[in-house]
């Protein structure tokens, strides 16, 4: 019996030692997992910039094919899908083929990553690594569309118009969400009273800039009464400014002037951009007449516009939180830092949008060299975009008031029914 007791005590001692060792190793394992998550998160965040560079280079390739492809790549004329003298692979059709390749690449990335939620998943590793394989995939995606028949490319062009419109709506929502965040950050509350002066100063600055923009557009783009369309665009923009300011200051809304001031500057910019997109031959447009050679101002404006659109696409792609229905989700350590699927979806739609800018939303004509988004179709797209932005912003202002009114009416109705049921 004593020998058995000694054996039992020895086993219990061994178990206690093992338990202590496991307890000591547990923090080490957690620390190692934390380090691994930190490394994967860093690679995931760095991957965003690589995709942004890919997006920029592919769209610059589309522009190069449009303006110089016929001189640099004469071999394309021997492809049956490119038609006579390769005309279906250059200019407008060339832009659409490169855009389709970019769209295919980011669509494949979307399909392979949209369900990713944790950093240790294989799809997360695919998103952040394997760049040599993805480079081969990109080259294949950009090459294959040049073998597609012209009818299919024209169909993609029609589809790209819809995708570009969806992209503009998503971008508007992202911009308005950013303006709302900015307003909440700068304007005062009970905890941040010192920010009052800075918020009021920024509000004044944005409204002054908006008013100066209106006056400047009148002087440059509406020099005579015959410029009725430009006068209408500018006047309607000024009316929207007043409406947004009045709505923000209404006693039931009471959202302050900062958000409406930022939004006012944004729609003035959209109006200016729309009028600038009018053909250069118009008498009411201050742009110079079309030239055979682009000057340095045209080239610089073109490059700035390209970089601005890429940055807008990038910022919208990482802003998936603006499109979530639930805002109270807790971020865990091993969660991905941004939604990979949404990120790639925005870039695929951005490829369509870029194509429309390069061909000025017109599938039947070719844009001149070093130009982007010039033509009446581009003008009306931007004007509608401006009006839609103002509409969405105004709805965000009045929606809480309308919702509160409906809730109060429902409570009053319920109370009346309850009172009538009492003896």
TrEMBL record:
This is Serine incorporator. Keywords: Membrane, Transmembrane, Transmembrane helix. It comes from the Eukaryota. Pfam families: Serinc (PF03348). The keyword Transmembrane helix applies. Signal peptide: none annotated. InterPro entries: TDE1/TMS. It comes from Vitis vinifera.
């Amino acid at each position: 019996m004593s020998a058995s007791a000694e054996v039992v005590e020895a086993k219990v001692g061994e178990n206690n030692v093992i338990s202590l060792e496991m307890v000591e190793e547990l923090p080490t394992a957690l620390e190692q997992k934390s380090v691994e998550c930190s490394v994967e998160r860093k690679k995931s965040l760095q991957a965003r910039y690589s995709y942004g560079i890919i997006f920029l280079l592919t769209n610059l390739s589309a522009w190069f094919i449009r303006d110089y492809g016929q001189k640099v790549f004469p071999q394309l004329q021997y492809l049956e899908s490119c038609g006579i003298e390769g005309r279906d692979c250059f200019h407008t059709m060339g832009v659409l083929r490169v855009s389709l390749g970019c769209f295919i690449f980011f669509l494949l990335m979307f399909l392979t990553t949209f369900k990713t939620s944790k950093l240790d998943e294989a799809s997360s590793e695919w998103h952040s690594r394997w760049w040599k394989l993805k480079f081969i995939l990109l080259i294949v995606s950009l090459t294959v569309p040049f073998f597609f028949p012209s009818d299919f490319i024209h169909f993609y062009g029609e589809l790209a118009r819809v995708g570009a419109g969806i992209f503009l709506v998503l971008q508007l929502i992202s911009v308005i969400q950013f303006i709302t965040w900015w307003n909440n950050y700068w304007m005062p509350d009970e905890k941040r009273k010192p920010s009052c002066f800075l918020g009021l100063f920024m509000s004044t600055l944005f409204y002054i800039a908006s008013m100066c923009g209106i006056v400047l557009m009148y002087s440059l783009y509406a020099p005579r009464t015959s410029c009725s369309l430009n006068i209408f665009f500018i006047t309607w923009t000024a009316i929207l400014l007043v409406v947004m300011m009045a709505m923000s200051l209404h006693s039931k809304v009471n959202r302050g002037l900062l958000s409406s001031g930022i939004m006012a500057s944004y729609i003035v910019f959209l109006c200016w951009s729309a009028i600038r997109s009018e053909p250069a031959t118009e008498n009411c447009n201050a742009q110079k007449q079309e030239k055979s050679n682009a000057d340095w101002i045209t080239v610089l404006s073109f490059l700035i516009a390209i970089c601005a659109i890429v940055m807008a696409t990038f910022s919208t792609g990482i802003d998936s939180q603006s499109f979530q229905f639930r805002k109270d989700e807790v971020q865990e350590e091993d969660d991905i830092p941004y939604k990979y699927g949404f990120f790639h979806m925005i870039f695929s739609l951005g490829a369509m949008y870029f194509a429309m800018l390069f061909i000025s939303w017109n599938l039947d004509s070719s844009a001149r060299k070093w130009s982007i988004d010039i033509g009446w179709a581009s003008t009306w797209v931007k004007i509608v975009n401006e009006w839609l932005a103002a509409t969405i912003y105004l709805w965000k202002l009045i929606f809480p008031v309308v919702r509160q009114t409906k809730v109060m009416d429902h409570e009053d109705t319920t109370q009346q029914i309850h009172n009538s049921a009492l003896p």
